[in-house]
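Now for a typical sample entry:
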Amino acid sequence: MPERTGVRRAATAAAAVGATTTIASAAGSLAAAAYFARRVLTPERNRPDDTEILEVRDGTVLLSATPETVVPGRYGLWLNGGRGHVRLGGLTGSDVAEGTVEREVIGVDRGVLRPGGARFNGYYYAGTPESAVGLTTQHVDFQGELGRMPAWLVPSPSGRGSRWAVLVHGRGARREETLRALPALHLAGWTSLVPTYRNDEDVPAGPDGRYNLGLSEWRDLEAAVQHAVDMGAEEVLLLGWSMGGAIVLQFLDRSPLAEVVSRVILDGPVINWGDVLDHHARLHRLPRTVGALSRLMMGRRWGKRFVGVHEAVDVAQTDWVARAEELRHPILLIHSADDEFVPVGPSRQLAQHRPDLVTFEEWRVARHCKEWNTDPQRWDRLVGEFAAHENLGG
């Protein structure tokens, strides 16, 4: 009898340990999922240097080799925490053993180019449309849901006119991301409006200070389009990069002003946030259950307090492969097969589902939203032709 009692006690103790372990594991998964969700939804105010300027030469600069700096094309280099900017051209040399690359220096827009830390990115142009690409620029405000929102207004060659393009930058980006598109749209005769949206720098934050992956930001885009209509726009083109593409798609689905949109251009867009989140969970080696739990927490009322959102972020609503039949606007979709941040798969699938609406142009080599950087002539031609076409209908 004592032996059986001991066995029962041991079994009870083992069960208690097992239960405790299970609870601890569940709590750990919940914490990991909440942390991952918050990382996705929280604006990144501090953008650290990611490149080392090793040597400044005559007409070139020697940089540390990174996955970004070794890619051909035109790029920007932020200096001094973003206060300085340099335009870089193509690769002029590399040393694999030394881990260095040499690139052409096309121009120093501001600041002093010297050895030290810097940040490499796709903003070949910096400043305003006037200072960067020579286009007359008006600084305007429009009334958004959360207050006054600043925007750049670039009139068409003939004045403002009735055809307006509204350009939407991506998550954590600045309005300067859109500068490269303005010359092609201007040449095609469009007035361009480049708005801000909630949680941008120096504009009102959302109620929770978090990104909502387009599910609330579309209302700021609606306010910008309303401003364009109030100023005489009768036809609107929408152009969105990355999360800006997700914002555009939510606007088209939810806003009555979608009827004024005649065409859409998407560059490296988030077609399905679920796919993007899965991709980043894998990159961070998170268990699939943690990634799935993070999406669940974003979209459920009980999970809002864990991830710090004011409104539920229902990722399923952002799956435009599943919702492809709901789309009704002609789309030029540009996406690189080598996009490391937003995988190209959903863009390919959307084009396959809706060949009647989607013109898909696939790039190679270019990293996230850097298609223009690797082949600006092709990008300008495609965007210019699509914008100039007279027979596209909404």
